[in-house]
Design goal:
With 89 residues, the chain is an alpha+beta fold. It contains 3 helices and 5 strands, in the order H-E-E-H-H-E-E-E. Helix 1 packs across helix 3.
Length: 89
């Protein structure tokens, strides 16, 4: 696992929280939150393409449903942590 991949997975653990099955997070919204979190921590964010690939694998591992709807990609049953809840390493 590369350093950026480890940072991404750790950041996902802090950003994504379980939610009702009908709640969802759009992938571009998650990417924006990830970029903010790693930038605030003084790290470099990975580009969108590898981010998307790793997030989809992470979701498969955790049993999070990924839904394609038109041009949008949603992660179902999760929500973004409130700003005060986010912690990064």
């Amino acid at each position: 696992m590369t350093d950026q991949t480890g940072i991404l997975v750790t950041t996902l653990i802090h950003l994504l929280k379980p939610a009702a099955k009908d709640q969802r997070v759009e992938l571009s919204e998650l990417y924006a939150a990830y970029v903010r979190a790693v930038t605030e921590a003084g790290k470099e964010a990975m580009p969108p393409a590898p981010f998307t690939e790793i997030v989809q694998g992470h979701c498969r591992t955790l049993g999070i449903t990924v839904l394609l709807s038109g041009d949008n990609v949603f992660l179902e049953g999760v929500q973004l942590a409130a700003l005060g809840e986010r912690r990064h390493e």
